[in-house]
Specification:
single chain; alpha+beta; Immunoglobulin-like; 9 strands; globular; binds copper (II) ion
């Protein structure tokens, strides 16, 4: 048994450095994804941050309310109106559940909003700014 434990420890020590090598920066993937958490409740969205660096962002939606909610993102124009296509979405999420997705965003101003009918008007929206790295 003592011999087996010794072997396991050795394997662990060998696995450590090689696991670290697996995270060695690769071309084009030098930045870990940013992280954005969004709390949803009738009828507000609370993003964990108002600014993000451009690139990949791991988005998590936590529905703390009593109705289903979703989140989508579109660009804002200079007048502050949403413009262009939906650039990211989180599926309709039931109360108490968390949904996640990875989005890829360029620099600019964006609007996060619940896409369910009648949810945006009473306040399920929030502005997000994406900046250069
Ligand atoms: Cu909603």
């Amino acid at each position: 048994m003592r011999r087996l434990l010794g072997t396991l420890v050795c394997v662990g020590m060998v696995a450590g450095p090689s696991a670290a090598n697996a995270t060695t920066p690769m071309a084009g993937r030098r930045h870990p994804p940013a992280h954005l958490m969004i709390d949803a409740q009738e009828y507000s969205l609370w993003p964990s941050r108002a600014r993000l660096p451009a690139g990949a962002v791991l988005v998590e939606l936590w529905n703390r309310g009593q109705d289903p909610h979703s989140t989508q993102i579109r660009r804002l124009n200079r007048a502050g109106a949403m413009t262009g296509p939906v650039l990211g979405r989180l599926r309709v999420t039931l109360p108490g559940r968390v949904s996640s997705a990875t989005w890829h965003l360029r620099t600019g101003r964006y609007e996060l909003y619940s896409s369910l009918f009648g949810h945006i008007e009473p306040g399920m929206q929030a502005e997000l700014t994406v900046t250069h790295r």
